[in-house]
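Deliverable D2.4 — example input (C-alpha cells):
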C-alpha cells in the first residue's frame, strides 16, 4: 500500500506575490503527486502549536500514513507522534551559506538543524532530503544526518505557461521592500538605471520611503500576477546571495517572462532559454539595451525543460521503496 504524504506548509498569510517557501512546498507536492503518492497538506506555524500537533499526529498515526514532509518549519520533529520511531521526514532544504554573511535566520536554522540531526540519530528515523542544487546540498553536509539519503532535483518548478513575448516595454522588479535584501537590490538597481535614463517598475509592499527617494521610478505596491507578468516585460533579479531557489527568477519564467539576473540567481535552474546572466550590475543598462535590440528583431521566448534531471528517477525509486507499506 502506498503511504499518504502529509505536507507541512507554512501558514504565514500569503500575499499576491507568492512566498518562496510556499512555492517550494507546492513544488514538492506536485512532484510527489506526479510520482503517484496521495498528498494531504496541513498548514502549521514555524513553531507548531498543540492543536497543530494533534492534527498532524492523527494523520501520521493512521494505517496508510507514514511520512511527514517538512519545509521551513522549525522544530519539525515536534509534530511527529511520540513513541513512533518509523516516521520518515523529507525536506526541501536551503543552504546556510550566504555571500553577505550569516543572518539571524540562518544561524537559527543551523542550530535547529543540529538539533534535528541529534534527534534523528536518537530515534533512528528514515530520512531523505531533496535539494534544488548541488550547492545547497553540499553546504548542508555538516548538519545532514549521516543516515539521510540526499538527492538533487534541479529545475523542480514546472513552467505554468510558455509564451512568446512581444518587444521589450518594461523593466520590472518584484519583491517585498520590508525585507532589507530587497531594499538593497532596489537601491542598487535604481541608481544604476537612472544613469542611463531607464525606469523601473517595482511591485511589492513597503515602498513609501523608497518612493520618495527614487521618484523617477514607478512603485505599484502589491498586484495580481496578471499585472506583474505582462508581455514585453523583462524582470530584473540582481541576486547577491546564493541561497536556495530565487522566487524572483522562477516565478517570472514560470509565467513566461524573461529575466536578467546573476549567477546566484540561477541556482537550481538549468537549461532555461529566456534567462540572461550578468554578475556586474553596473553594466546592466548595456545588457538591457542589447536585449532590447534583440526583442526588436525577434520576440523574446521563455522555454524551460522542467524536471530534466539524471537523479529524478533514482529519487522516485528510492521514495517508492521507502514509502510503500510492505
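Example output (designed residues):
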Amino acid at each position: 500500500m502506498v503511504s499518504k504524504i502529509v505536507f507541512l506548509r507554512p501558514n504565514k498569510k500569503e500575499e499576491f506575490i507568492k512566498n518562496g517557501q510556499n512555492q517550494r512546498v507546492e513544488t514538492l507536492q506536485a512532484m510527489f503527486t506526479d510520482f503517484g503518492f496521495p498528498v494531504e497538506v496541513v498548514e502549521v506555524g514555524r513553531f507548531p502549536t498543540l492543536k497543530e500537533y494533534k492534527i498532524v499526529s492523527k494523520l501520521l498515526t493512521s494505517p496508510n500514513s507514514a511520512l511527514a514532509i517538512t519545509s521551513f518549519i522549525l522544530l519539525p520533529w515536534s509534530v511527529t507522534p511520540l513513541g513512533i520511531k518509523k516516521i520518515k521526514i523529507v525536506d526541501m532544504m536551503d543552504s546556510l551559506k550566504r555571500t553577505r554573511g550569516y543572518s539571524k535566520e540562518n544561524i537559527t536554522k543551523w542550530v535547529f538543524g543540529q538539533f534535528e540531526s541529534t534527534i534523528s540519530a536518537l530515534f533512528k528515523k528514515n530520512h531523505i532530503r531533496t535539494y534544488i542544487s548541488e550547492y545547497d546540498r553540499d553546504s548542508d553536509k555538516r548538519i545532514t544526518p549521516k543516515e539521510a539519503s540526499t538527492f538533487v532535483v534541479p529545475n523542480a518548478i514546472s513552467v505554468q505557461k510558455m509564451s512568446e513575448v512581444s518587444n521589450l516595454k518594461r523593466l520590472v522588479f518584484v519583491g517585498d521592500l520590508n525585507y532589507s535584501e530587497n531594499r538593497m537590490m532596489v537601491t542598487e538597481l535604481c541608481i544604476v538605471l537612472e544613469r542611463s535614463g531607464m525606469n523601473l517598475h517595482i511591485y511589492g509592499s513597503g515602498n513609501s520611503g523608497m518612493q520618495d527617494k527614487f521618484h523617477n521610478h514607478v512603485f505599484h505596491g502589491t498586484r495580481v500576477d496578471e499585472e506583474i507578468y505582462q508581455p514585453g516585460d523583462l524582470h530584473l533579479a540582481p541576486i547577491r546571495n546564493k541561497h536556495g531557489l530565487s522566487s524572483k527568477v522562477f516565478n517570472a519564467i514560470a509565467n513566461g517572462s524573461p529575466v536578467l539576473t546573476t549567477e546566484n540567481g540561477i541556482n537550481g535552474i538549468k537549461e532555461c532559454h529566456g534567462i540572461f546572466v550578468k554578475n556586474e550590475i553596473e553594466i546592466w543598462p548595456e545588457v538591457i539595451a542589447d536585449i532590447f535590440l534583440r526583442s526588436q528583431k525577434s520576440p523574446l521566448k521563455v522555454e524551460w525543460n522542467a524536471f530534466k534531471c539524471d537523479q529524478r528517477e533514482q529519487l522516485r525509486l528510492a521514495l517508492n521503496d521507502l514509502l510503500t507499506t510492505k
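The chain has two domains: 4-156+308-323, 164-304.
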